[in-house]
Amino acid sequence: MNKVLLKCTIASALGGLLFGYDTVIINGAMLDLVKYFQLSPALQGWTVSSALIGCILGTILIGRPGDLYGAKRLLQLLAVMFLASSAGCAVATDISIFIIFRFIGGLAIGVVFYYSAQIFSIAGFSNGSSMAQSVILGVTNLIFTLIAMSIIDKAGRKSLLLFGQMGMVVVLGFFGTTQVAQQTGMSYAFIFFAVVTFIGFIYLKKYIIETKGKTLENIEKEVLCGLAVLRNLA
Questions:
Q1: DSSP 3-state of 209
Q2: What's the structural domain count of the chain?
Q3: Rounded CA gap, 224 and 222, in Å?
Q4: 3-class SS at 70?
Q5: Are 201 and 166 in contact (CB under 8 A)?
């Protein structure tokens, strides 16, 4: 195997690992962070989303520096920033400092995974049990990801995406109507997510093309034709 390709593959894999770890690890820490820093709901939201905000800004702003200084140098710089972010979060004595370092970590690298431990805790599970439920949730996600990877070429990407999207609508809607959700005041949140997910389902069904059995050239042609139609409509 080409050594350069192997190194690039390992770097990409490590990037995915760090991204998943850095974003999802906050789920397990939130229960203790809320108690330690006495966080309000608004601050809980900032604590969770700060890394994603950094991630979005990093994605938007990285293009020009990448052209000027090269991807390798930027990756080295971001690796140092990620290390500083991890150390800063570990020793932070104030929630503002913690959020700043999490934001920096986001420059190096989606909602149930972030709040699942709290959701299970509100539902009546103990802290330890809530963490176990979160682990089960992650394992379930991994299993279905592997299943999807094994059948995606046969079933088609769009079909699988729509199936998963509608499944989320049904599950979220079901949770929104349960007695536990109504008693804890989370019913409207689940129903809201279900409605937004259904809107996404409609959008995907209408605008996303199926890639099954098509070459990259054909996919590119369909995408460009679709963009031309949107420009004409605008």
A1: coil
A2: 1
A3: 6
A4: coil
A5: yes
Measured CA to CA, the distance from residue 226 to residue 218 in angstroms comes to 12
211 domain residue, yes or no: no
What's the CA angle centered on 18, arms 61 and 99, to 5 degrees?
65
Q: Is the dihedral of CA 141, 146, 149, 154 positive or negative?
A: negative
- CATH number of the domain where residue 15 is located: 1.20.1250.20
Please, are residues 140 and 116 in contact by the beta-carbon 8 Å criterion?
no
Residue 24 identity: V
Reading the block at residue 110, the tokens are: 């989606």
Tokens of 59: 């994605």
Q: Report d(CA 86, CA 76) in Å as an integer.
A: 16
Is 139 contained in some domain?
A: no
Residue 27 in domain: yes
Query: How far apart are the C-alpha atoms of 55 and 45, rounded to whole Å?
Result: 16
C-alpha to C-alpha distance for 110 and 27, rounded to whole angstroms = 12
Q: Give all strands (DSSP E) within 58-155, no chain letters.
A: none
- 141 in a structural domain: no
Range of the domain at 11: 1-109
Give yes or no for residue 177 having a pLDDT over 70: yes
Q: For 32-82, what is each residue's pLDDT tens digit?
A: 788 888 888 888 888 878 877 877 777 777 777 777 887 667 767 877 887
Is residue 98 within 8 A of residue 107, CB to CB? The reply is no
Q: Which of 72, 81, 74 is closest to 4 using CA atoms?
A: 72
